[in-house]
Amino acid sequence: LRYGYHYKMSVKKELIADFAIDFYSKRSFDEAFDVYSQLIQDTGFDGVLYSYIPQISTASKLSIPPIFKSSEAYNKFLEYYFENRLDETDFAIKAVKNGETDIFDWWEIIEKRGVTETELAQVRIARDRFNIANGITIPTMSNQRGFAGASLITSKGGMAYEELKSEYLETIALCTKMFHDFTLSRPLSSNTF
Fold this sequence. Notes:
Helix content is 51%, strand content 17%. By secondary structure, it is an alpha+beta fold. Strands 2-1-5-4-3 form a 5-stranded antiparallel sheet, sandwiched between helices.
């Protein structure tokens, strides 16, 4: 796994093992996502959004629909997000679509690479209206099949946020990859594996 920044990372092997045992026993996508979402919340993040957007040519050949699945903490923001078509100006989507494979912290990307005023306004709305102080995107795919990833959100800031990343990000990244790989290896149309 690659990171767009460098922190002392730790892997929680027991947490990964417990996640794998629970996750692989589930029979539907929703059940598997619930296990994944619970892991995210148990580590201290407020919520997660998993997205998979197939390329149009891939979607028609393989009958894999786009997937947007979120934990409850994300729902109000996502309602606003889709209602206002923020996906059209989302710098995180643009980065993954353009082949970004490193995990990235939203505010660090904004500070290091810069974004448009519209993209910046979107993150400020998330922070000011929906108490999403920080977010991290974990890209899991960007190729001819489509693009996918998970975005984690938290109301934590400052040292509490830095400690959260240092303590759990690598473990979450490994579990996110596991969730993504397993999800795309199963038929999703019937919502059961």
